[in-house]
Write the structure tokens for this entry.
Amino acid sequence: MRNLLLVAKLDIKESTRSKWFFVYLLVFGGLMALFFITGITDSVVMGFTGLSRLLLVYMQVTIVILPIFILITTVKSISGDRESAILEYMLSFPVALRDYYWGKMLGRFVIVFVPVMIALVIGVLWGLFKGGELPWKVLIVYSLFLFSLCALFLGIAFFISTIVKSHDVALGASFVVWILMLAFIDIALIGLMLANRWNDDFIIALALLNPLEVFRVGAISLFDPELTVMGPVAYFLLDTFGHKLFLFYAVFYPLVLGALFAFAGFWVFRKRDLL
Amino acid sequence: MIAIKEATKRFLDTNVLDHITLTIKRGDKIALMGPNGAGKTTLVRTILGFYHLDMGEVRVEGFDPVKNRVEVLKRTSFIPQTPPPIKLSLNELMEYVSKSSHITPKSIMQEASRMDLDISKHLAKPFFKLSGGMKQKMLIAIALAKRSDLLIFDEPTANLDPKAREKFYALLQEMPDSATTIYVTHRIEEVEPLVNRKIYMDLGKVIEDERV
Ligand SMILES: Nc1ncnc2c1ncn2[C@@H]1O[C@H](COP(=O)(O)OP(=O)(O)OP(=O)(O)O)[C@@H](O)[C@H]1O
Ligand SMILES: [Mg+2]
């Protein structure tokens, strides 16, 4: 446990100095700044105002940026170190593989999650300052969503990072994962449904399996339980499951999926040659 | 200290280690030699638990390096063939080493100063920004500070200037007789005075093993 925290701490320190982390901060910091400047909180779009509006836009942006950022930057944490022989040296010290792997994961989690949360908090403070009302419940569930979204993509990234031997292949693989998930959010699903007259159940299953879709529907439903701005699949999902159950699912499904990937990655890390 | 039995490691259908059987006793000082691609680094990495063997077994003080890596690495110092581009600062690297191996950063700095490397000037510098020779010295300092029973050096002097090389070998002279050392080297004349056993490898096999 001590070594796990040591590995995590050093990974965090290393990350805070890296260029990608700087860009990451810029993106989320800049995003918030942009929101304030453009006065998103003041405008009324699609019936949303103030804080809800800001959170909604923030969600739309995180859904695109967060996964690819986590994938690209994390996927090299093991595969890159392996390729450059850093792993060979670092693992020549008496540190259990368990501590090394989970320590790296913990460090990365802090690094990707904290800026997203800080940006969120700043946004909320701004909204309050502008005279909004603090939607406590929404905020907590929303933070949980972000938490499990981060966990999911970290899990996937670590999985790819350990099974793949070269950094380039790891990058390619993470792009494929990202594109697939993005492509299969509502729009593509409706297209599929219309074009092929596929079985409705199949389409619903596809939607439920795609964590990004689950996140999106869950998050939007926080602001607009009637889901006027979303596609028919989303509507159907909420109608079938009920709001509470769906929120529950939207928090735990990505979390569990991420954990499965992370454990699979760890298993491979232990069972295969380290170099 | 180390017992290797019928160790076989296959990469892409070639036996990089081909049924190697070798016993290394406490206090052996070994020069491990052989042409490029002979399998020296692979053998060393196997002892350190990086590879899963296809056949045979390796034991270090009775421990399996893969299953009991912490037990094996506790008593081992290792210097890789080329210094890795570690992004941690020297301070952080020393923290990692000292906390995981239960030594003090001070002891590393002492060893380094004996190699004419003044770490205190570079504490905040990332390791990969040091010069090649300084990196090597840092790795050597860490390896010596651990006071291990088993030291494995994969061509440790490649980047050192002649003076530093002499210093390094002078430091090695001070090592206790009980320590076991493996030098992977292409320059036998350098380690000649330090070794009492020479092992030649080629094509994954031990082809000569002589005590001197
Ligand atoms: N991870 C790996 N995957 C595939 N082949 C490998 C791997 N590691 C080593 N090899 C191959 O195994 C053989 C032995 O390599 P090794 O690094 O052990 O040689 P060496 O004796 O240390 O050579 P050198 O003197 O050049 O350092 C080489 O042919 C190399 O290409
Ligand atoms: Mg070699």
